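Journal club side-thread
Mid-discussion, someone asked how the predicted structure for our own chain would compare to the paper's figures. Pasting it here so we can look after the session.
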Amino acid sequence: MTNGRRWLMAGAVLLCTSVFSASAAPVPATPAPPSPVKNDPGKTDSSKTRPHRKTVQERLVEAEKALALAGNDKDARKLADQAETLRNRSLTGAVRMLLTDSQEALGKHDFQAAEDDLTSAITIQPDQPILRRYRAAIRSAAGDNNGAISDLGVVIQADPGDATAWGMLAEAERDRHEPDAALRAYKQMMLLDPHAPDADKQLKILQKEKDGQED
């Protein structure tokens, strides 16, 4: 198995464990009602001063931007893991069960069953692009590059900062013998994750394949 193929198959690993859930803050004892205060000019409305709580999508965008600017491999991998956790943050329990089933089928090389489980998961939560990326990885592993590229197009449109999706797109285009498209996708992946493992080596391979086709 080439480095490129190992890199692709890494994207096929489905998240089957629980992703962090918000910890419930302890509920304080109910205090005695305060004495009524009338027309206190120093009294402010707490709802107006409460800081904005960032959404999962906002936090994901921040993590993706930080990944593109990471100064070293260690920070980059930490940020990449953080972004991946956020992408899986909103998956429901039913969908997670389907991911587990898909992973088990994949371990038995039953690609059709693995894909069917992902298709069911997408039906439940069509607004979660990470699910299409998982299905794209399975389709690529099964040799269905066209199906994988179709899924990845949806992923990239919804989450253009997903470096793994761009890398998988490069590999799928390479398998379709489209070196120019593969190189473009890989260069975009490198912009989003400059410290991706073996990125420079893979870039040279794709560049050589593109140059060879032009001769």
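Post-session note: The mean pLDDT is 84.
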